Amino acid sequence: MTRLRIIVLLLTLAFVGGIGWLVILLAKGYRLDAKNLALRPRGLFVVTSEPDGAQIFINNTLESATNATISLPPDTYEVELRKEGYFLWRKTITIQKEEVTKIDAYLFPAAPSLSALTFNGATSPILSPDGTKIAYGIPSSEPANDKAGIWIMDLIDLPIGFSREPRKITDIDTKELSWRWSPDSRQLLLAQAQKGFFLLDTNSLTSLPPAGGPLTDIKLSEIAKKWQQEEEKKAQATLQTLPKKLQEILNAKNIAFSPDGTKILYTATNDFEIPEKLVSPLPGSSTQKQERSIKTGNTYIYDVKEDRNFLVYGKELITDQEIFEEASKSARLATTKTEKSTKVKSVKPILRWLPTSKHVILAESDKIIIMDYDGQNAQTVYAGPYDAPYAIPFPNPSRLLILTNLGAGQGTISNLYSVSLR
Question: Disulfide-capable partner of 374 in 86, 113, 310, 399 (CB 3.0 to 4.6 Å)?
Fold first, then answer.
């Protein structure tokens, strides 16, 4: 009897152990190969999308719909997400055994709608450093109207009952005028051709001298130095999050961290090589082709968490600071006898982060493109006449702000429009 009990106990332990071992293998992604009657290693492929309900095609075969988890043998696959009314999303992914590979696809509408935000004209919308508002001008007209001046528009979505209407902060004539934000997003530096500079508080209404009168003289060099120190201090603090070796070799401009701080967009100012394995590899990291041989003038995005570096653009870009400098230069030229006042038209594109932290906006002269941070899925969300490079993301990634006259012809004033990305 004792021997029988021992045998039963051993069989029970073996059965429970076998079931536990089987459960562990299944959790790791192993699945039964019916043809060979054996457990084969697999990986789990988790697919989500915004909006959800997109069809998942793997190697041109419909497998499921987002959001889903699919078990796949280790291999490289062509994945497509299709949803009516949205651009096709496509990417090549590599599945590793016993690993979870996850993609979060953001689908953009193939025919986005436009909504007018201003009706009295607008010029030079400049995004604040904190990304929550823009400063823009309304030009004077004949007969003169009380709308002319500098305005602030909040881009954040406020709770119901709170006003988010644009507010006027000064009545200065915007002709031959340019402006830029302070690093703390609380002030504007105004520059008017050969008439001086003025520092403006954006939280109050300031009446300035009549049109043509001089602006208040300020010590521009001191303000510029102070702002530069603030920007350098902020940049240094964010760069500390990068691997130490990358900090030592990174020599770049146009540095911009993603809103969540996990990625850095930069334009290289010299050639260098990013060493491998700057951080410990993460299971399920991106398997997209990366570029660690950095070339001068190219723009890249480095993923701090996954130690992956992607080439996203290979041409010269413009920054917000350069837009201000070009506008100031144009205004100065406009006061000479041989030049006429014109809008600043830069042929250089600009790159900005979308608040998703997984996409960047590329504003070119005749179209606006949104692409994944690895350079994939470059999709034109707007093509047509607009005042480049004025394409600005809202804090809510469902909208984009552009400046355009919708092709009404030369001499027609542009207005601000919202482009729906949902």
Answer: 310
Domain boundary pick from 90, 106, 122: 106
Report if residue 259 sits inside a domain: no
Is the distance from CB of 321 to CB of 180 less than 8 angstroms?
yes
Domain assignment present for 304: no
- Alpha carbons 307 and 20: distance in angstroms, whole number: 36
Whole-prediction pTM: 0.83
Tell me the per-residue pLDDT of 334-354, one tens digit each, with 9 for 90 and over: 444 333 333 445 568 999 999
What pLDDT is attached to residue 342?
Answer: 38
160 and 194 co-located in one domain: yes
What are the tokens at 297? Answer: 């003038």
What secondary structure, in 3-state letters, does 289-332 show? CCCCEECCCCEEEEECCCCEEEEEECCCCCCHHHHHHHHHHHHH
201 lies in which domain range?
114-229+317-420
From 106, 124, 158, the end of a domain falls on 106
- The C-alpha atoms of residue 82 and residue 62 are separated, in whole angstroms, by 10
Integer-rounded Cα Rg, in Å, for the chain is: 28
Q: Tell me the sheet residues that pair with 266.
A: 300
Residue written as token pair 């080439």: 311
Domain count, the chain: 2
Question: Do both 363 and 379 map to the same domain?
Answer: yes
On whether residue 30 sits in a domain, the answer given is: yes
CB atoms within 10 A of CB 201: 13
CATH number for the domain including 19? 2.60.40.1120
pLDDT digits (tens, 9 = 90+) for 240-262: 888 888 888 888 888 899 999 89
pLDDT digits (tens, 9 = 90+) for 106-126: 999 998 999 999 998 999 999
> 395 pairs with which residues across the strands?
none
